[in-house]
Design a protein that fits this description.
The chain is α/β, with parallel strands linked by helices and about 300 residues long. Helix content is about 40%, strand content about 20%. It has 2 domains: about 160 residues, Glutaredoxin (3-Layer(aba) Sandwich); about 130 residues, Glutathione S-transferase Yfyf (Class Pi), Chain A, domain 2 (Up-down Bundle), CATH 1.20.1050. The structure holds glutathione.
């Protein structure tokens, strides 16, 4: 079976969403550590410009955004399902709410707490990444509001656990739990030294849930160099994919397009459309170092324009 190669860095909370899924599924995986700010010279040949973290590589297939990365992991290793039969929509919708709402509120809390301790290069990078000035004094002043907003969202998850279930959708963990673990882990690790910190101190069911999640660990990573990951891409052939000719977007196979995230890190990636389904867009690209590769994006949250 082709290796799952995760390009990530240890302090990245969206990477922890994926690493905890490796833990739930008890998977072995290859770990390529990437820089936490631009430039990322060994990642760009694979993604074509997409700069966010993490990125999953399977041979010559590159998966951007954890929405899609989690679906790929599920396909690769279906046991201990992240998407239990009949509840796929629920799990994915909860993950979308968490990624797009709770995560950003929690970032406000964390950056309000540690923003002034982060290197200037990081602050500058995140200003470019978000399109908003990273100002530690303003972040600190806004932290109390962010804390209340984080609580107001997390309390909904606390409510879900109130009937005694161990995980958000029932007795077993799913994609929704991995998604929620991202901001909860971020708060605990960056502000609480691994312990429940505000607003988790007022959410005892969630604090206990996060300990249960942590116990799954991160599976079994093996370090891989970026050069080796590029060599894997170069020697592999991407999996076949196809374009639905009746897709309501009107996009056609072979068309040159640019795909850009709609929120942060808005760097367009250009290529030739080779795959189009209700939940993904796939473009082929050629790179001197990575060879012929296919880069996959979710459709939700990504804007397509003609290249
Ligand atoms: N929607 C993306 C969000 C990823 C994201 O924002 N990741 C953060 C790190 S946790 C990031 O890319 N930060 C800038 C960087 O790493 O260069 C996903 O689900 O993968």
């Amino acid at each position: 079976m082709t290796d799952l190669i995760l390009h990530h860095y240890p302090t990245s909370p969206f990477s922890e969403k994926v690493r905890i899924a490796f833990g739930l599924k008890r998977l072995g995986w290859k770990s390529v550590t990437i820089p936490n700010i631009m430039p990322k010279p060994d990642l760009m040949p694979l993604t074509g410009g997409y700069r966010k973290t993490p990125v999953l590589q399977v041979g010559a297939d590159i998966y951007c955004d954890t929405q899609l990365i989690m679906l790929e992991i599920e396909k690769h290793a279906p046991a201990s399902p992240l998407l239990p039969a009949g509840r796929e929509g629920e799990a994915r919708a909860l993950a979308m709410w968490i990624d797009r709402n709770i995560f950003w509120a929690a970032v406000g809390v964390v950056m309000g707490g540690i923003g002034d301790k982060l290197p200037e290069a990081f602050q500058k990078d995140r200003s470019e990444f978000s399109g908003r000035s990273f100002d530690p004094a303003k972040l600190k002043a806004a932290a109390p509001v962010a804390l209340q907003q984080t609580y107001a969202q997390l309390v909904l998850a606390e409510e879900m656990l109130r009937d005694g279930r161990a995980y958000l959708l029932g007795a077993e963990p799913t994609l929704a739990d991995c998604a929620l673990y991202n901001p909860v882990w971020f708060l605990k690790e960056r502000l609480g030294g691994g312990k429940a910190v505000a607003p988790l101190d007022r959410l005892p069911l969630l604090a206990a849930w996060s300990d249960r999640m942590k116990a799954f660990g991160n599976g079994t990573p093996t370090e891989m160099t970026a050069a080796d990951a590029l060599a894997v891409a170069k020697s592999a052939t991407a999996a076949a994919c196809s374009v639905d000719p009746a897709d309501p977007s009107g996009l056609k196979a072979g068309q040159k397009i640019a795909i850009t995230p709609d929120d942060t890190g808005k760097v367009p990636v250009t290529g030739t459309l080779v795959g189009l389904t209700p939940d993904r867009l796939s473009i082929s690209r050629t790179d001197e170092r990575a060879g012929e590769i296919v880069v996959h994006f979710p459709r939700a949250g990504f804007i397509v324009t003609p290249a």
